[in-house]
Specification:
Belongs to the small heat shock protein (HSP20) family. The chain is an alpha+beta fold. The protein is built from 3 helices and 7 strands; from the N terminus they run ααββββαβββ. The protein has 2 domains: about 30 residues, no CATH class; about 100 residues, Immunoglobulin-like. The N and C termini lie far apart (about 50 Å).
């Protein structure tokens, strides 16, 4: 795996700590592919993560957003005595614990989650604050007047 030295970029940048942490996390992340998931763009400001969580009940799944990182985790509460009595001829359904992290861009909010037919659907929406939206500035005509500053 190739490594990149991004220290020259961060020497002249202020406030990009989150991006540096994200790049570090991405470079060290080793994914096992479980559980599989899709990320869809529904429109310009809406996204959806769909994750295959067959065998997990709603109360065995947790979603948490902290510092622009969405964490989806699943923990199976197995009855060890009942599991010991089961005899599998083939066991292809993975019910092991998992934790997946998704880095969210600024202003992306989790709108809700739905567990349906073994898929967990997480709706995400970009909510751009009013002060960051483009706005039209009116141009006055006539004599030059002093423009009041806020």
């Amino acid at each position: 795996m190739r490594t990149y030295d991004l220290s020259p970029l961060f020497r002249t940048s202020v406030g990009y700590d989150r991006m540096a942490r994200m790049i570090d996390a991405l470079s060290s992340e080793q994914s096992n592919g479980y559980p599989p998931y899709n990320i869809e763009k529904l429109d310009d400001n809406a996204y959806q993560i769909s994750m295959a969580v067959a065998g997990f009940a709603e109360d065995e799944l947790t979603l948490e957003v902290k510092e622009n990182v969405l964490t989806i985790a699943g923990r199976k509460d197995l009855d060890e005595e009942a599991e010991a009595e089961r005899v599998y001829l083939y066991r292809g359904i993975a019910e092991r614990a998992f934790e997946r992290r998704f880095n969210l861009a600024d202003h992306i909010k989790v709108q809700g989650a739905l567990l349906e037919n073994g898929l967990l659907h997480v709706k995400l929406v970009r909510e751009i604050p009013e002060e960051m939206k483009p706005r039209k500035i009116e141009i006055a005509t006539g004599k030059a007047k002093k423009i009041a500053s806020k």
